[in-house]
Amino acid sequence: MSASSFCKKIIFLSFVIFFFGKLSAFEIFQFSVAPKYALQNGQLNEYVLYTNGQKQSELNWEIQNISMIGLNATIGWEMLLLEADCMWGIPKDSGAMYDSDWLNTSNYGMKTNYSESDNKVNYLGDLGLRFGLNIKTWNFLNINPYVGIAYTRIKYTANGGTYWYGNNNLYPYNDPDHSSSGTFTGDVISYERELFNYLLGLKLKFNFLTRFTVSADFGLSVFTQINSLDHHILKDGTSSPAYYLDKMQGFFKSFNVGTEVDVKIWKGLSAGAGFKFVYINQLVGNDYQKTSSETKYSLLSTANSAADGYTWNVEAFVRYSF
């Protein structure tokens, strides 16, 4: 055996002993449960696009200080880690809904219609499931690579409001000589969205002074699906309702980042706070329509659907580890 080959083997074995010798797992089995409270803010956007990609319609739905309660549970066995998360929002008024149209096909950049309505979140639910590994490299650092799925379902209703319409869809909504304005009463539009994110992620946990743990989390959605149902209760200011079903999907269109601080109080009891941000880049898909008298949706060949948005949560929790 040559001297260089021998040295390489010594270096490799030293690395294995130094690094992998520090890898540790859970003490056979561990379980923790954490009741949580969160405030969620953000905005979800939906679009109708002409087939050339220009915007035909845009609705912006605000999420403002929605209280959420829920539970996080983690099970660890050896180096395996399973984590489940469930949060449920409390219905309340939530900012405004903004509705814009670009209906002049001779000038796609002209906004012909605009309206603002009060917004309410009827329900909001977040579910998450992760499977990963717990790798302890040093006493102060745990590395948790994971795969997972995150599911969100939310429903809004826009009520009342004010509109400004350009005459015959040929003029801007704010043209003082060629537009009209008025008010809506009652429910105007309802919107329901479900989101599936299939995640690959990494969580780092730093342990300080035996009592403090700070974590940083990043998850990338390999595949994202959005299904949404848009019910125009008052279509174009009349009493004729219309239903729109949008189906969109795409690769690498969403990500989430988060951080958490956990302080031990006594034995297995700890408390802390966290922050989470979720971003959804625009997805484009098919748009389907039906009226209240129809039973099946028909594909719209003259338009496509699109959606994007973001949310951020501030959370507080109490955790007990067994």
Indicate the topology.
Layout: H1 3-19, E1 29-50, E2 55-77, E3 80-89, E4 92-101, E5 113-133, E6 135-138, E7 141-166, E8 179-208, E9 212-232, E10 242-266, E11 269-290, E12 298-321
Antiparallel strand pairs: 1-2, 1-12, 2-3, 2-4, 3-5, 4-5, 5-7, 6-7, 7-8, 8-9, 9-10, 10-11, 11-12
Please name the defining characteristics of this protein.
322 residues; mainly beta; Lipocalin; twelve-stranded antiparallel β-sheet; 1 helix; 5% helix
Number of domains: 1
Write out the CATH superfamily name. Answer: OMPT-like
Mean pLDDT: 90
CATH architecture classification: Beta Barrel
**Count of DSSP E strands?**
12
Spans where pLDDT lies below 50 across 5 or more residues: 13-26
Structural class by sheet pairing and helices: mainly beta
What is the CA-CA span between the terminal residues? 52 Å
Radius of gyration over all CA atoms, rounded: 25 Å
In N-to-C order, the SSE pattern is HEEEEEEEEEEEE
What oligomeric arrangement do these chains adopt? single chain
CATH topology name, in short, is Lipocalin
**Proportion of residues in helical segments:** under 10%
Taken as a percent bin, the fraction of beta residues is over 45%
Specify the overall morphology: elongated
Note the main sheet.
Answer: 12 strands, antiparallel
- CATH top level label: Mainly Beta
Describe this protein's structure.
By secondary structure, this protein is mainly beta. It has a single domain, classed as Lipocalin (Beta Barrel). Helices cover 5% and strands 74% of the residues. It is built from one helix and twelve strands. Strands 1, 2, 3, 4, 5, 6, 7, 8, 9, 10, 11 and 12 form a twelve-stranded antiparallel beta sheet that branches. The longest helix has 17 residues. It is elongated, with a radius of gyration of 25 Å.
